[in-house]
Design a protein that fits this description.
This protein is α+β, with helices and mostly antiparallel strands and 267 residues long. The chain is built from nine helices and eleven strands. The chain folds into two domains: 144 residues, no CATH class; 71 residues. The strands form two sheets. Strands 1, 2, 3, 4, 6, 7, 9, 10 and 11 form a nine-stranded antiparallel sheet that branches. Strands 5-8 form a two-stranded antiparallel sheet. α2 packs antiparallel against α4. The radius of gyration is 19 Å and the shape is globular. The two termini are 14 Å apart. The N terminus is likely disordered.
Amino acid sequence: MVETLVTKNKFKIIFEKDSHEIDIDYSLADTELAEKWLHKISRVKHIPIDPLESNLDDVSDLQGIYKKFCKEYNINEIKFDFTKQSTLNTLHKIYEDNHDNLSVKKNNQLLYKFHHAIHETEEPTINRNKIKVSWGVKEGPLAEKFNCMPFYQNKIKKLHIYLHWSELGKKPFSYWKSKEPNSQERFNELCLPHITLRCQFFIPTCDILLQPFPTGFDKWFENFKEAWLIKHTLKKWDHIDEFGAPLLAIPLTHIDCHDLNFKKIVI
């Protein structure tokens, strides 16, 4: 959990490490997006963070979670080879097809656990160097449509605060890497830029280098790029858009990031 104290665009994050509290002063980034984000954070300060969306829950057993998902929501369970990427793509489509109906149910946590388990199996190390904080569905109507792409940074720096991508789908490189269908229709359906502003954020525990796209992806992407950019009124999509993130706040002090945890939020 995290504790935040805001004073004129400066605030403090309280971490917990080895049963001791450690605080870091932050200065809010001078952007409209950062101001909007901080306003949203102030609205959820008394609500506990969501452990699943904050990557605190164990979602490593995809096969077991899928079985429970089917049983809970009366969905026909299909036998899959869970070691194949094609299986993960099919499972993601099952999630998409059932999202709208199941997300309105009161007991819908297993829906999101199923989704996280799919992506955890695809990329088990993607969140290894990030502390993520999210309220999940608890943030309710605070999520808003907002084009976050112009705020993306070309560097991800340790202890800085960044907005987490939060769309129902994949980014183009992720789509290619997971061997989704070579279909413009499916590409346009599943791939989304960062167009939703939510309360969630992440703090890197180390500097993260943004690697250029491999040649294979660039050649493949050319087949779908123009139509997709037009659809979302984008001028470009490069490795910064794929792997970067919008900056929210800058630390005024630095500490050892090893084994840091959040405590609570106070504004």
